[in-house]
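Hi F.,

I've been meaning to write this up properly since the lab meeting, where we talked about keeping a consistent format for the predictions we share between groups. The idea is simple: the sequence comes first, exactly as it goes in, then the structure tokens exactly as they come out, then a line or two of notes. No screenshots and no reformatting. I'm using this chain as the first example so we have something concrete to point to.
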Amino acid sequence: MSSSSLRPYAPTPLRLGINIDHVATLRNARGGTAPDPLRAALVAKEAGADIITAHLREDRRHIRDTDMQRLRAECGLPLNMEMAVTDEMTRIALQLLPHAVCLVPERRLEITTEGGLDVIGQFEKIKACVGELQHAGIEVALFIGPDEAQIDAAKKTGCFAIELHTGSYADAGATQGAELKRLQTAAHYAATLGIEVHAGHGLTYDNVSPIAVITPIVELNIGHFLMGEAMFVGMHKSIHHMKHIISVAR
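Output, unedited:
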């Protein structure tokens, strides 16, 4: 799709979801209960976060089932549960009933999520999962790359939203402009199909503004950078500053 065919969109407030997985990673490195992911979520809420995001992985390497239960019951912000497309995770989500679920690819050997879902290749499985979760009143997003064929497949699953994987943009170096263009085109294309558009992965103070400017994007999910920055300036300050940057960019 050419840039000349992109429809204009009026800017809307941009929601900021804070991923607290790495608080749990630090806790699990030593064992015990500290630092507490729920406490991190409450600080994020005070700092202006709109959503709390947590990935319950199959191997439970960071977030645990009890963390999800406490976040759902005690945080006071909408809970966005990232999960693989498996029977176990679907069952847990249907019991937990988070505000939203983001379906992501998951491999045991990866350090973090390395790419988007192959919605085309796993269409029937993903469509069935989307249908089951949304029938229970959970908003479902699919974490995908900025590819129009994958967006078309996502639309056919009936999902509420997509989350565009911004990792290639964040890591691009000299080709970052081209990667940004791909994200812009994909976001506008998805919006023309009536799909809500989110984005995340690898976003920092330095690279978030061009993403925040893409008007069809209504939600960003950011975690690792902000948790690292919090070690130096505190979590409240790191999140509040990110909120300020994206608000100014918008």
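Notes:
The longest strand covers residues 139-144.
The radius of gyration is 17 Å.

If this format works for you, I'll send the rest the same way.

G.
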